[in-house]
Design brief:
14 strands; globular; 10 helices; 2 domains; about 35% helix; single chain; about 30% strand; Alpha-Beta Plaits; alpha/beta
Length: about 300
């Protein structure tokens, strides 16, 4: 039986801007029909990677293929099989919602009606505003319109560059629900995000730092590979305790996570010993508990390894 073709195949992709390296000989594959997430902070190279895959930017070296087509050589064919949603809203702000959608349908020689089933769940939420100028929409509505325009020609691959940045939590959840429905239609989805909590919604993820993938696997496998003793600490003065915890000789790392500090410690440091240490430092309200790691904890551990 012939092995199924990888939908995206990237080999030794390298991109620089002057002396700055955006992508450092990056290689990876994305399977047909999966949601593949690229997770990393701003400046890690996500946008450069996605612009190359969308055939709007050339690499210095290396290659990328989409369903067997070269992104560099077959860019006209590539643009017919992908839907690209860049990080910044890039639709025509002076055109209405309906006019933008019709325009993109026309570019790909199709109609709104032909592939309406793909965008129905998304477009119905903005259809009451179809006469409104795109520039006057809220962030969540702009996002839904941009996704509708990216899908109107029924692409094989959907490339989404930080689609939920600056969007409210309810719209973020709705957006990921939409992605799951699109996956069920057989569309391969490549999505980048700086939100670590979105990692668990992907089939596989790549943790990205400084133009490299430092880990690539399912979210659960990445969490399972975490081998540190992890504690969550709360005190009445979180700012001061951050410094005190970092100064403890048996605390390996300490990072602020919302209203807690997540710390990794040597195995011979007990919770009671740490409690005593903080009490001696003058903290009267101290809560310490062992916790399971998140993808963000894994990213921080990989980032801080020597």
């Amino acid at each position: 039986m012939q092995q199924k073709l990888k939908m995206i195949l990237v080999k030794n992709l390298h991109k620089t801007y002057g002396k700055v390296t955006a992508l450092n000989n990056l290689s990876f594959t994305v399977n047909d029909g999966e949601i593949f997430g690229v997770i990393g902070p701003d400046g890690s190279g996500k946008t450069s990677l996605f612009r190359i895959l969308a055939s709007v930017l050339l690499p210095n070296s290396g290659s990328a293929e989409m369903n067997g087509l070269s992104v560099s050589k077959d860019f006209k064919k590539i643009r017919n099989i992908i839907g690209y949603m860049p990080g910044r809203f890039s639709l025509y702000q002076d055109l209405s919602v309906e006019e933008n959608l019709k325009f993109f349908a026309t570019i790909f020689s199709t109609t709104i009606e032909e592939n309406y089933h793909l965008i129905k769940d998304i477009y119905q939420q903005i259809e009451p505003f179809k006469k409104r100028r795109a520039g006057a929409l809220s962030g969540g509505m702009k996002q839904k319109l941009a996704l509708s325009c990216a899908l109107i020609h029924k692409p094989e691959v959907l490339i989404l560059d930080e689609p939920t940045t600056g969007v409210d939590p309810v719209s973020r959840k709705e957006f990921w629900d939409m992605l799951k429905r699109l996956k069920s239609e057989g569309i391969t989805i490549l999505v980048s995000t700086a939100y670590m909590d979105e990692a668990g919604l992907c089939d596989r993820i790549a943790l990205m730092r400084e133009g490299n993938f430092i880990a690539t696997d399912t979210p659960q496998n990445i969490i399972n590979s975490y081998n540190e003793t992890l504690l969550a600490v709360q005190t009445e003065n979180m700012s001061a305790s951050l410094s005190d915890l970092r100064n403890h000789p048996k605390v390996k790392t300490c990072f602020a996570f919302g209203n807690q500090h997540h710390i990794t410690v040597h195995a011979d440091l007990s919770i009671s010993d740490l409690q005593h240490y903080l009490n001696e430092k003058g903290y009267s309200t101290v809560e310490i508990k062992a916790i399971e790691p998140t993808v963000e904890d894994c990213f921080m551990a990989l980032t801080n390894n020597p």
